Amino acid sequence: MVISEAVRERIEAAKARFPQPRGALLAALHLVQEELGHIPPEAEREVADLFGLRPVEVHEVVSFYNMFHSESGGRHRVYVCTNLPCSLRGARTLLRHLESHLGIRCGQTTPDGRITLGHEECLGACAYAPMMRVDRTYHEDLDPERAVRILDELE
Ligand code: FES
């Protein structure tokens, strides 16, 4: 078992709050990812068992949402939005700046395991471009210097 008993209990509590237990699937996946750092196939199978679903149904959800990760990564996941509105406001320069600051390329993890850097399509905050998501927090109206400061403050 990769999902702890404590998380299983929280998942059961979440299921009880929905008329259809399946309504708690996203909450359950967040809990699993919080515990494991990502959602490996074994965890997908265990979540499927908890919800009476087929593993492929859980995998479809995990692979659909950018916020879920099947692969392990750094302690923090940083995603710069590089869709058009953000790109027009300097997102690509911002991403290159972060690559250079961290000494890694987009898609890689720092050697100390602190940060995985990536890019994403529109995160729905175009009015505040350019922006990046750090774990579950949005940082908006960025410039390269401020983005670097935000990363430097991460543990
Ligand atoms: S294009 Fe970046 S948030 Fe929409």
What would your notes on this structure say?
With 155 residues, the protein is an alpha+beta fold. It folds into 2 domains: 5-64, Arc Repressor Mutant, subunit A (Orthogonal Bundle); 76-152, 3-Layer(aba) Sandwich (Glutaredoxin), CATH 3.40.30.10. It is 46% helix and 12% strand. Strands 2-1-3-4 form a 4-stranded mixed sheet, covered by helices on one side. A hairpin with a 2-residue loop joins strand 3 (132-134) and strand 4 (137-139). It is elongated, with a radius of gyration of 17 Å. The model has no long low-confidence stretch (mean pLDDT 96). The chain binds FE2/S2 (inorganic) cluster (FES). Residues 81, 83, 85-86, 122-126, 129, 131 line the site of FE2/S2 (inorganic) cluster.
Give me the secondary-structure topology:
Layout: H1 5-16, H2 25-36, H3 41-51, H4 55-64, E1 76-81, H5 84-88, H6 91-102, E2 115-120, E3 132-134, E4 137-139, H7 144-152
Helix pairs in contact: 1-2, 3-4
Bound molecules: FE2/S2 (inorganic) cluster.
How is this structure best summarized?
By secondary structure, the protein is α+β, with helices and mostly antiparallel strands.
Describe this protein with a few key phrases:
binds FE2/S2 (inorganic) cluster, Glutaredoxin, alpha+beta, 4 strands, 155 residues, elongated, single chain
Q: Strand portion, in percent?
A: 5-15%
- Helix content class: 40-55%
Distance between the termini: 29 Å
Label the overall shape: elongated
* Average pLDDT over all residues: 96
Q: What string gives the helices and strands in order?
A: HHHHEHHEEEH
Ligands (ions, cofactors included) = FE2/S2 (inorganic) cluster
Q: Give the CATH topology of the largest domain.
A: Glutaredoxin
Give the second-level CATH assignment, the architecture of the largest domain.
Answer: 3-Layer(aba) Sandwich
Q: What does the main sheet amount to?
A: 4 strands, mixed
Query: Tally the helices: what do you get?
Result: 7
